[in-house]
Amino acid sequence: MKVEQTKIEGLLILHPTVFGDDRGWFMESFNQQRFANALQELGLDVPEFVQDNHSLSQKGVLRGLHFQKEPYAQGKLVRVVQGKAWDVAVDMRKGSKTYGQWVGVELSAENKNMFWIPAGFAHGFIALEDNTQFLYKATNYYNKESEDAIVWNDPTLAIEWPLDGVDEVLVSDKDKIASPFFKKQI
């Protein structure tokens, strides 16, 4: 596994080692020991995962920007196992030097990359293909009373969503009424 650091401390892109031949391919989709070693080498906390989530989205479905407030804040290790998505994490950490900055990364069944998003970030993605399946490993259990969201197209954040080829952005009713960024902090 190759670990790529992003412009925001703690946000990592993980490139798994894939072994392929004329029969197909094989990879470890997750190895706790290798993941922990990679984080420790960077001086980062090692999480414990307690919940896995799996979603299916059609092209143009945008989910986010979601987060949970303390004491239920969640770190997420995310990947796409079918299709393609553009995934975004926004720094919401109080006092962070990168507060309000975001990182976006393409995740796909083809590239097999994963995105580590520690607690303290809002998270969202847009499906770039039909039948995109997205997997999340979470460090805390979902808690409805702690959930919150930032509107996906907040002008303060100016997230550069890749909308070329997307006929319509589809968001849930809940995400349509999400709050603007300036009122939020974890």
Automatic annotation (TrEMBL):
GO terms for molecular function: dTDP-4-dehydrorhamnose 3,5-epimerase activity. The record marks 142 as: Participates in a stacking interaction with the thymidine ring of dTDP-4-oxo-6-deoxyglucose. The active site is at 66 (proton acceptor), 136 (proton donor). Its EC number is 5.1.3.13. Gene3D superfamilies: Jelly Rolls. The keyword Glycoprotein does not apply. One of its GO terms (biological process) is polysaccharide biosynthetic process. Keywords: Isomerase. Catalyzes the epimerization of the C3' and C5'positions of dTDP-6-deoxy-D-xylo-4-hexulose, forming dTDP-6-deoxy-L-lyxo-4-hexulose. PANTHER family: DTDP-6-DEOXY-D-GLUCOSE-3,5 EPIMERASE (PTHR21047), THYMIDINE DIPHOSPHO-4-KETO-RHAMNOSE 3,5-EPIMERASE (PTHR21047:SF2). This is dTDP-4-dehydrorhamnose 3,5-epimerase. The gene is rfbC.
